[in-house]
Specification:
With about 240 residues, the chain is of the alpha/beta class. It contains seven helices and 13 strands. The protein has one domain: Rossmann fold. The chain is globular, with a radius of gyration of 19 Å. The structure holds S-adenosylmethionine.
Length: about 240
């Protein structure tokens, strides 16, 4: 786990956390180690199988569910203090309204959602050519299709990847969450990424990667709160 999310989430011990698109559960298991009760959700059968194996090898108590993240509420009925998503998740989803609705459904009143994600400007470029060219729309609705040698998990693999992804503007992220009933606490845009995933990044003094020009941000963070249910006694007196 990285500094952005550690700082944003604070002390998670004793909290119930839903980790969306958890891959093979690395961060879910870290949450469990920190004393949280974590449920990780991912569509990959292999990912969830490995997550469960690691969970039992490490004698931890995380829970893992294999499903489409958009269908989470069909498989998980529990409500959570924190719903968490990080680095490389929403780009796999064609639209965000059902995603935001599910997040709101799974949060307890008083709970919060936090996401740290690659910035939509960074996804406007075609990185299969050198130098990369700006090719895709900031709020493009159509899928972005790319073929390249290697996989996102293993750049040295000889496998051909065929990927469909979607670029989501910050406006779409914020609007979908607020339309689902969440209150936006903040939106922060960040120059430095913990991951060296775009060409031409340089390492800064903190060991993070950034564009030498810092001409656009590489990451964004959003924190959004689910309001506490409040029965206003004031109404009875008015
Ligand atoms: C880049 S990884 C996310 C890694 C993440 N930073 C983590 O916590 O380890 C993206 C994950 O999204 C999952 N995924 C993609 N589409 C999905 C969907 N519709 N529902 C659930 N998981 C999905 C993939 O299987 C993959 O594990």
């Amino acid at each position: 786990m990285n500094n952005y999310e550690l700082k944003a989430l604070g002390d998670v011990s004793g909290k119930n956390i839903l980790h969306l698109q958890c891959h093979f559960g690395q961060d879910s298991l870290s949450f469990a180690r920190m004393g949280a009760k974590c449920t990780g959700v991912d569509i990959s059968e292999e990912g969830i199988k490995l997550a469960k194996q690691l969970n039992s090898e490490l004698n931890l108590d995380a829970n893992f569910v294999c499903c489409n993240v958009l269908d989470t509420s069909k498989f998980v009925s529990e409500k959570f203090d924190i719903v968490f998503s990080s680095y490389g998740t929403i780009g796999w989803l064609p639209e965000l309204k059902p995603w935001a609705k599910m997040i709101s459904e799974r949060l307890k009143p008083g709970g919060f959602f936090y996401i740290v994600e690659f910035h939509p400007i960074a996804w406007m470029f075609d990185y299969t050519v050198s130098p990369p060219i700006m090719k895709y729309g900031y709020q493009q609705k159509e899928a972005i299709y790319e073929e390249y040698e290697g996989t996102y998990a293993d750049a040295n693999s000889k496998m051909m990847s065929k990927e469909y992804g979607w670029n989501h503007s910050l406006g779409e992220v914020i609007s979908s969450l607020s339309e689902a009933g969440l209150q936006i606490e903040y939106l922060k845009e960040r120059d430095a990424s913990p991951y060296d995933i775009f060409p031409g990044l340089v390492k800064n003094d903190e060991g993070m990667f950034e564009l030498p020009s810092k001409i656009y941000p590489l990451l964004f963070e959003v924190k959004a709160n689910k309001k506490n249910r409040q029965i206003s006694s004031l109404h009875f007196f008015l």
